[in-house]
Amino acid sequence: MKTVKLILALLLVVIPLTVPVLAQDAATLTVSFPGDPRSETVNALIEGFIAMKADQGQPVNIVINEPTEGYGDQLLLDFGAGVGPDVFSISAETIPEYVASDLIMPLDDLVAAWDEWDNFPQGMKDMPSMNGSVYAIMYNTDTRVLFYRSDVLEAAGITLPFAPTSWEEIFAAAEQIKANVPDVIPMEVESGTIWGEGTTMDGFFMLFRGANGNFLDPEDGKWIVESPALLDAFSFYERMFGEGYSAAEPFMEPEPWVFWLQEGLANGDVGMAVVVNVVWGLYAPEGPWAIENRDEVLSWTPMPAREPGAGINGLDYVSMGGGWGWAISNATENAELAWEFVQYMTSADAITTYTAGVGGIPSRLDAAVDDPHVAAIVEQVMPYQSFRPLSADYTRVSEQIQIATEKIMLGEATAQEAMEQFAAAVEGIVGADNVKRLPLD
Amino acid sequence: MLSINAQTVTLFGRRVSRRRLGELSLLIFMLPALILVIAFVIVPAVWAILISFTNQSLLGPNARNFSFIGIENYLKLFNDPGFWNSLGTSFVFVFGSAFLGQFVIGFTLALLLKQAGVASRGLIGGSVLLAWVIPEIVAVYIWGSVLSFQSGSANQVLLALGMEKQRWLIDTPLLSIIIVNIWRGTAFTMLLFSSALEAIPDTLYDAAAVDGASRWERFRHITLPLIRYTILLDFILITMGTFSVFGIVFAMTGGGPLGRSEIIGVYIYRNAFEYREIGYGSAASVVMLIINLTLALVYLRFTRVKWTVEG
User: Fold this and answer.
1) pLDDT reported for residue B305
2) Architecture of the structural domain at B74-310
3) A93 CB contacts (<8 Å, ≥6 apart)?
4) Is the CB of A392 inside 8 Å of chain B's CB atoms?
5) B137 lies within 8 A of chain A by CB
């Protein structure tokens, strides 16, 4: 009996080892992407690719690596150890670091010969591009808008639908909520270091772009570390916390999104919040942050620029877009198959499937959209989409933005002081030769 | 192949003394553990020391083509106020949570539990142990809800007592993480001393009592000398353990606000992984390693001198 068990155990160990040997004639592609909640949908798509290749008489073997936690770190360590994947999913803002490390393959010749490339809107071509080269094909994007509780605003005496066209109107609404519905915190704009990149992307940039702010001078590529737009954005924070329209404490606790969004906005304890639009799905009656009567109490409107026309490129409204694309490793030995895989994963059908399964906004104009919320976002917000600066120094500058908002929030610096300290810190990161200061009028 | 008589063993045709065979088998039995220790402790530590003299980063041009830069990382480290801040924070953190907290409370609990009845021993011991066995992140969630400003139970208690709400994580971040770490780590010290105290025969106390020794004298002249190595061991383990705490602080305050609770573990993580400067992060780790080793040596020396003199 013992011998039988031993042999069984040995077989269990040995059989998996022989499988790769038996499957040797199939081309192998290693693929990395962040796991949950994408896992099920992406795996199904990958199965579809394998089946398609099998039908073409070209069996392929796909090795999948899908860490849920710490995807970015793991990917870097894999590349560092020389076992990086052939194809990987990448968040657009990290592309510059991969370009600087020579890890990612430029796709210019491939997209030039690809008849489907023009189904991607210009923004989705710009987002993964750096120095004129395309490095990833986007499969998903997102936007940020101003969500508000209709019931709270109504109780505060604000006319619905709420459609502010300037920051002043947002502050006026906050003042009314503060005066008439004192139990409610009027507004939330992501702040501080705990919220991490959310503070920069969902909070700061939604203000900065609304004041026509730009960090990288397109002429000389220098970081603009002091500008009227930067002061405007920081002054928004100063006024929001100084007037008591928001609260500092919850931003300093672990998982501030639980307080502000999962509970605050869901229960009507928060009046307005600038948030990534995917929360709409989370708040669905059957969603994880369910609001049972969501459609009656929760609404959204595009985030206005400081004043009409004051936004980036003279726009009236602003939105920030992030997103994920598929990229190919510079070290792959299977570039052709890798490109086939990327094409498959970014086809209109695949993106339709992905959006239906995981959420977000499709990156292609010809992907089908069933969800009326997503359709409305595509129509009303996508035209105002702008992106984060693509620079290898971005992550560290972004952290300085978070620190600046934290100082303002805790009352340890005025907007002006925070900007000066930010400028000095960025100068330390990128070097004095790479920064410039615009006159403040 | 193998034949055995009283003094020698014949192995593969060679006569080997039993002593030699004993040493040989000892080595063979130790080999698996030794290989693991070398592979997962020694090699990475040596690797970290080597990396600390390079400008290697996780990303960017220095990721693959890094070069030897001598002690530049160390110079940069010693010129960084952030590093000194994290070192200072770490010392306060270790002193507060390891010495004042875990050691004093854990030791006192162990002494009290020795006197306590079986029921209360199980109840108190069990509840202290509970804090130790739950995962770090769960502990962070629990304490996050205790220290939350708006609705946390700590502030609810203060309100009920007619006092003002406190901004625990903003005004007293270091104190907050010290309390959390005491709560979490006390069980270890308590367990260690409980078993040490169990091992002291009651007859010693009885004899001393007959000789007229007071409670304090019995503690001073029987308990303390007999558990001195446990005290030493506990000091070494909790100091090192607390010095290398990372997860609970990172998840609780992220080192903030504005670096006020940034212990050295968080500083290293930030530089090595967020800023991707693995060479620089390694240099900070090496300094941390040296501090830990020095503290351990000081303890060893201190205990030896003190106890042999008074022997």
Assistant:
1) 53
2) Orthogonal Bundle (1.10)
3) A322, A387, A388, A390, A394
4) yes
5) no
